[in-house]
Write a structure and sequence with these properties.
By secondary structure, this protein is of the alpha/beta class. 34% of the residues lie in helices and 25% in strands. The protein has 9 helices and 14 strands. The strands form 2 sheets. An 8-stranded mixed β-sheet has the order 8-9-10-7-11-12-13-14, covered by helices on one side. The protein has a 6-stranded parallel β-sheet with strand order 3-2-1-4-5-6, with helices on both faces. The termini are far apart. Bound molecules: NADP nicotinamide-adenine-dinucleotide phosphate. The site of NADP nicotinamide-adenine-dinucleotide phosphate has 22 residues, from helix 1 and helix 4.
């Protein structure tokens, strides 16, 4: 039984805690917040035995094996390092960090201490993404050549919201663009070069972002992300012998469609309970810890670095710089 701690009792931590109630092999035994009241309220809601009014205290709880870091992006690196230094395994929300330098530091720390670390990029573990990998691996559509994908919605500008707050790592790219980006790297491998443009709003974050990605052997991706415009939020892989369509929302689809060169469409269903979609990544952590491995082959740290390097490149072209960078 893996004894989990939760750092950051916000909205996504609630989804994690609800999901954990149905997942075998683990239970949440402690939660940490900046506020004792918020920690206590979260503990009450999910029947968690211990709660802490500061984040550091969770690192010193000897009866916690692994911590789920669900704080805003800007804290991911520091929080992860705190829990690794306390001897805890870490599952950290996406993006793993603000930039590639932080990802390298976190990776080095996890490896030095032989502790598990993984970015909680839930899409990668979903039945639909497993199916996508199977179809690509089977050669059914031939060689992938081009990926297009986007994810975006229109939110009101709110300087206090995590999405629009530069200090919390806000912006479309790191919050949403990481999903179309990870589709491109899953299908085509690392990004060799990016050409990006976007709109930086009054709070200093990228509100709309688009990038052309050059991958190996002349393959390409085109991605868009937005927090000020509703996008189609779909994906498509064009390959030598057909294509694969990924319906909205492309980061958590319930099916994929294989389209043959003659236009014949084959819808492959991959249903899952959306509110419990984190179960697949949690089960992967449990499997890795049971096997005594410190990295997941499904979402290795090298892949988190690939994503961070590409996002750094795109962000530098947009001129978005986070405090402290
Ligand atoms: N995988 C997914 O589908 C998914 C979806 C949404 C978000 N996420 C990721 O999860 C992370 C959290 O997102 P969220 O939507 O849950 O955010 P949220 O609702 O704002 O929660 C973040 C929590 O972090 C804590 N926190 C610590 N320091 C903070 C600070 N300086 N400013 C604000 N909050 C601070 C807050 O708790 P206290 O104030 O009580 O300490 C807050 O409850 C993000 O990195 C995001 O990318 C993932």
């Amino acid at each position: 039984m893996i004894r989990w701690g939760v750092a950051g009792p916000g909205s996504i931590a609630k989804t994690f805690a609800r999901t954990m109630q149905d997942v075998d092999g683990g239970e949440i035994v402690a939660v940490a917040s900046r506020s004792p009241e918020r920690a206590a309220a979260f503990a009450d809601q999910f029947a968690i035995p211990r709660h802490y009014g500061d984040y550091e205290a969770l690192a010193h709880d000897d009866d916690v094996d692994a911590v789920y870091v669900a704080t805003p992006h800007a804290r991911h690196a520091a929080d992860t390092l705190t829990y690794l230094s306390g001897g805890k395994h870490v599952l950290c929300e996406k993006p793993l960090a603000l930039n590639a330098g932080q990802v390298r530091t976190m990776t080095d720390a996890a490896r030095a201490q032989r502790l598990f670390l993984m970015e909680a990029l839930w899409s990668r573990f979903l039945p639909s993404y497993q199916l996508l990998s199977e179809v690509l691996g089977s050669g059914r559509v031939g060689q992938p050549l081009f990926v297009e994908a986007d994810l975006g919605f229109r939110a009101p500008v709110d300087a206090d919201s995590r999405l629009f707050d530069l200090a919390q790592g806000g912006g479309a790219l790191l919050d949403l663009g990481i999903y179309p980006l990870q589709l491109c790297t899953l299908v085509l491998g690392p990004v060799e070069r990016a050409v990006a443009g976007g709109v930086v709003g009054q709070t200093g974050v990228d509100e709309v972002t688009a990038a052309i990605l050059h991958h190996r052997d002349g393959t390409m991706g085109v991605i868009k992300a937005a927090i000020r415009a509703g996008l189609s939020s779909t994906g498509r892989v064009a390959a030598t012998e057909g294509s694969i369509e990924i319906p909205s929302y492309m980061h958590c689809p319930q099916s994929i469609t294989v389209v043959a060169p003659d236009g014949t469409r084959d819808v492959l269903e991959a249903p899952f309970e959306l509110q419990r979609g984190f179960r697949y990544e949690i089960e992967e952590v449990h499997r890795c810890l049971a096997d005594g491995v410190t990295e997941s082959t499904m979402m290795p740290l090298a892949e988190s670095l690939v994503l961070a390097v590409a996002m750094d490149d795109i962000r530098s072209q947009l001129g978005v710089v986070y405090p402290g960078e």
